Amino acid sequence: GPVIAPNSDLVFEVELIQVHDGPKPPNVFKMIDIDNDDHLTKDEMSMYLARQAHAQGIPVDLAAKQQEKVLDNLFKFEDKDGDGKISHEEFSGPKHEEL
């Protein structure tokens, strides 16, 4: 067959047949904010992490040992105003419902 010279440009034409929206990301903030006050407390975060650990099959005692450290680090970076709660505005995770 034909030989393509080194350093040649190859051009491929691709026809897009269909485009689908992917699955909507979950609103993690809403999942954590049990009392719907638009603030996440350490208790709410702790319960969420415990549910996630259980869903992943991680033993609760192992998860609990790591949880305090995770929560301290999380609040250190997310709780910008230092009030002990993470507001909707401070939260950096997925928090918007897609339209």
The CA-CA distance between the termini, in Å, is: 52 Å
What is the fourth-level CATH superfamily of the domain at 28-87?
EF-hand
Order of helices and strands: HEHHE
CATH class of the domain at 28-87: Mainly Alpha
Query: Mean of the pLDDT scores?
Result: 86
Strand content: under 5%
Q: Give the uncertain stretches in residue-range form.
A: none
Q: How large is the radius of gyration? A: 23 Å
Number of strands: 2
| Major beta sheet, strand line-up | 1-2
What CATH architecture label of the domain at 28-87 applies? Orthogonal Bundle
Domain EF-hand: 27-55, 66-99
EC number: 5.2.1.8
Protein name: peptidylprolyl isomerase
Keywords: Calcium, Isomerase, Repeat, Rotamase, Signal
SSE blueprint and pairings:
Layout: H1 28-32, E1 39-40, H2 42-55, H3 60-78, E2 86-87
Antiparallel strand pairs: 1-2
Helix pairs in contact: 2-3
Outline of this structure?
The protein has 99 residues and is mostly helical.
Can you walk me through this structure?
- With 99 residues, the protein is mainly alpha-helical.
- It has a domain at 28-87: Recoverin, domain 1 (Orthogonal Bundle), CATH 1.10.238.
- Helix content is 38%, strand content 4%.
- It is built from three helices and two strands, in the order αβααβ.
- It has helices at residues 28-32, 42-55, 60-78; strands at residues 39-40, 86-87.
- The chain has a two-stranded antiparallel sheet with strand order 1-2.
- It is elongated and about 70 Å long.
- The termini are far apart.
- The mean pLDDT is 86.
Keywords:
99 residues; mainly alpha; two-stranded antiparallel sheet; elongated; peptidyl-prolyl cis-trans isomerase activity; calcium ion binding; calcium; signal
